[in-house]
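#struct-pred

JT: dropping the chains for the assembly here, can someone run the whole complex?
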Amino acid sequence: MMKADILLGLQWGDEGKGKIVDVLTPRYDMVARFQGGPNAGHTLEFEGKHFVLRSIPSGIFQDNQINIIGNGVVLDPILFQEEAQSLESNGVDLKRVLKISRKAHLILPTHRLLDKAYEQLKGSTKIGTTGKGIGPTYTDKISRDGIRVGDIQKDFETKYAIAKKRHLTLLKACGMEVTDLELEPKWFEGIQYLKQFELIDSEFYVNNALRDGKRVLGEGAQGSLLDIDFGSYPFVTSSNTVCAGACTGLGLAPSRIGEVYGIFKAYCTRVGSGPFPTELFDETGNTIRRIGHEYGAVTGRERRCGWIDLVALRYTIMLNGVTQLIMMKSDVLDAFPVVKACDAYEVNGVVTHDFPFSISHDVKPIYTEMKGWNTDLSHMTDESQFPKEFLDYIHFLEQHLGVPITIVSIGPDRQQTIFRNKTQQS
Ligand code: GDP
Ligand code: IMO
Ligand code: MG
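RK: done, full complex below.
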């Protein structure tokens, strides 16, 4: 029996997961999203084209791979239809290659409103969610009030009416009186559209594929520092973004997990509120944002930028059992005279190398400074071309993280990807 490999983000999301899933897909027969929903925005660039995927796995542009939306995902029929039709108009034979778990939960129009209402109630302590109804949908799942994709095949109208009524009561209690649900017609249109896809029991589908010798890649959304259990709570998303989420989100036994690809940027970013120890508020932060185009793939929101945080990365590498590291956006640091990496925190005057319970207050990053490489990496095709200072940076990270960096990304395009130690890869 084969094992499934998992690719997931080790920081606060937007590490470049979409690009690398697309690059790795030719090695697999199946790509499966295991959690999150349209809060994700996964960017792919190839042959001069640019796509942002939200709910559909990033394996969709390669040849014949099957793509699966797993049970751990929350799906908005309106956004799904928009995304799917745009892919279809770009020539993707979506209904043939995309299958959706019956156990995935549906995002209702009222979930989006509840997301907004809860944020308003929080006021200055708001999370800065993407406003896509993610939290309220997972809340309903856990409180056993959710509606699943498979429900659209039976007694759907009744289930919808019950959920809607409950949500309208909640909204009223939050001071948001809703009389007209503007999105409802489009939502029902989306439900009809969804019926054109093959709805599957993805846990059987994935496990049978592994039994038959097929290679499966699990695609994470968000990043480990946004995980509901281990992230910077409460400024997190509402799902388990760590590797364990692939087990529950696809029906994979832990013994069925193979390689775990942990992906991170050569620096660090975060969107929305919440603590970020290495955040830069100066010109350096602005320069990273400008060169790295650090604006949300979907919302356009400014991403907060800072130096790489090895304390946090060691923590997320541990949580996920990462076996290979992938470093993204190395080219963004090309022109910096000095690059810094935070290898320890000073918390209340005590130096720690371990990620503390709270990173909200009094966490001072301690940096190691290295000479920059001052070289354009973006056209390179082999690691033998890497300048010494960049190799020094890679080796420093590998030494402090304890896991090899096997892939280095030097630009947004599919081709700007360098596989290291080629002999070991194949
Ligand atoms: P994801 O959510 O993890 O898939 O990442 P996003 O798509 O939200 O954000 C990553 C952004 O960085 C996208 O705009 C990518 O096109 C871009 N990108 C990915 N890899 C690289 C890289 O190596 N260099 C540069 N300059 N941009 C990259
Ligand atoms: P990808 O998959 C970056 C952040 C939001 C907010 C918090 C909670 O593209 O990496 P939510 O809408 O999930 O309730 O918002 O999580 N967030 C992301 N940040 N990348 C993402 O996805 C994110 N998905 C959610 O900004 O701080
Ligand atoms: Mg993104």
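JT: nice. The chain has 13 helices and 20 strands. The first helix runs from residue 17 to 24.
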